[in-house]
Design goal:
By secondary structure, the chain is α+β, with helices and mostly antiparallel strands. It has 10 helices and 6 strands. It has a 6-stranded antiparallel β-sheet with strand order 1-2-3-4-5-6, with no helix packed on it.
Length: 386
């Protein structure tokens, strides 16, 4: 019989495979820990390999821009690439999971080690246990990084890109309408960030769906020294009381309005700069104000959860595909696996586009790829060797 690759005796192999008691706890045996270490080790190796290539290509593409904008090397390394690497790794985590599972499991199948496991009575379901534990570890790390760590680094990375590569910040906004208080609707025809000034401003106050006050002004200026402080210039206020109307005019009035330029000057990829709790708060606040341009923020919020859950689905697909010893060997498994993983990422991008440009709710659009690939995983699981 072919020698088992890890250094435990055949008797211990049979005991471990059969699920009987061995040192290392009841839930996970020595064989399980071996698979977990190999899975996670291959996952980290795949990340390091692919990210190294990605960094080289990214630097080659942006080198001219960095040089023309005189970006310092310290900022390039620490502000950009030290935050680019975890962002890129988390973004393509499903691909790395797939590669790790297929590469490692195909190796086991080629060496007839999976056949040896089954011959001792181990079921395919029992063999999946260490894989699912590994997937849970990856899912937890992916969710933690994507929800709390990477958004903080994205602030530095995106600010660097805005300064040294390509401006991302929006300097003007048009046709702004939002609820600044209960029953109080503000409208600005045009806002310019460099002067913090909005033009053709109006403020309508409703009481029991009846208009009771209508303010119009030539301009409104944000006070950068204080939060929510605005100066309204050249204004007129019409106050309605039944059939009566009272008009007040003035040159200047200072007031507090629950809005800031950041509420409507949305920076490209701004949703990547907010942690998940901040995203949830921002979405709720903008929805209450009647602000419509929040779909990208909702997609980002739900995507962080869906991407973490995808680790389990893609792990199951990878094990089901590569656990069978085939004539094509690892090359065939890797080819099919890469095709499926890239199609998953592509399908997720297309589904997000439907949510932004169509009428598909963001939570449904983000979870459609997971639902579809869950059916694929279930089918492959039923067809996997038992």
């Amino acid at each position: 019989m072919k020698k088992i690759s890890w250094n435990i005796g055949w008797r211990k192999w049979r005991i471990a495979a059969a699920g009987q008691k061995l040192p290392g706890g009841k839930f996970l045996r020595r064989l399980d820990w071996y698979i977990i270490k190999k899975f996670l080790g291959t996952y980290v190796f795949a990340i390091a390999l692919i990210i190294s290539i990605a960094v080289v290509f990214d630097f080659n593409e942006k080198m001219d821009r960095f040089s023309s904008h005189e970006a310092p090397w310290k900022a390039i390394v620490f502000d950009y690439y030290m935050n680019f690497i975890p962002y890129f790794a988390n973004l393509f985590s499903p691909l790395f999971v797939f590669i790790a599972v297929i590469f490692f499991t195909s190796k086991l199948a080629e060496n007839s080690e999976i056949i040896a496991m089954f011959s001792t009575g181990m079921s395919f379901k029992r063999m999946l246990r260490p894989y699912m534990v590994s997937a849970a570890i990856i899912a937890a790390v992916t969710f933690g990084l994507g929800s709390y760590v990477i958004p903080r680094g994205s602030v530095t990375r995106i600010n660097f890109e805005d300064k040294y590569y390509k401006p991302r910040k929006t300097s003007t906004a048009r046709n702004i309408q939002l609820e600044v208080d209960s029953g109080v609707i503000a409208y600005i025809e045009r806002f310019e960030d460099y002067s913090k000034t909005g033009y053709r401003f109006s403020l309508d106050k409703f009481k029991e769906k009846q208009l009771v006050s209508h303010l119009t002004a030539r301009s409104i200026v944000y006070d950068t020294t204080s939060t929510h402080r605005w100066t309204i210039r050249d204004y007129m206020i019409r106050e309605m009381d039944g059939m009566k109307e009272h008009i007040t005019k003035g040159d200047r009035i200072d007031t507090t309005l629950f809005m800031e330029p950041a509420d409507f000057l949305i920076m490209k990829n701004q949703q990547e700069m907010l942690t998940s709790p901040e995203l949830g708060t921002y979405i709720d606040r903008q929805r209450q104000r009647g602000f419509a341009n929040i779909k990208e923020f909702e997609i980002e919020y739900h995507k962080r959860i869906a991407m973490s859950f995808a680790s389990f689905i893609l792990t199951l697909i990878g094990v089901s595909l590569s656990s069978r010893k085939t004539k094509g060997g690892m090359g065939l498994h890797l080819g099919v696996g890469l095709a499926l993983s890239f199609s998953y990422i592509l399908f997720q991008t297309i589904a997000s586009t439907f949510a932004v440009n169509g009428n598909v709710p963001p939570v449904i659009a983000v979870w459609i790829p997971n639902i579809l690939y869950a059916f694929i995983a279930f089918y492959l699981y039923k067809k996997a060797p038992k």
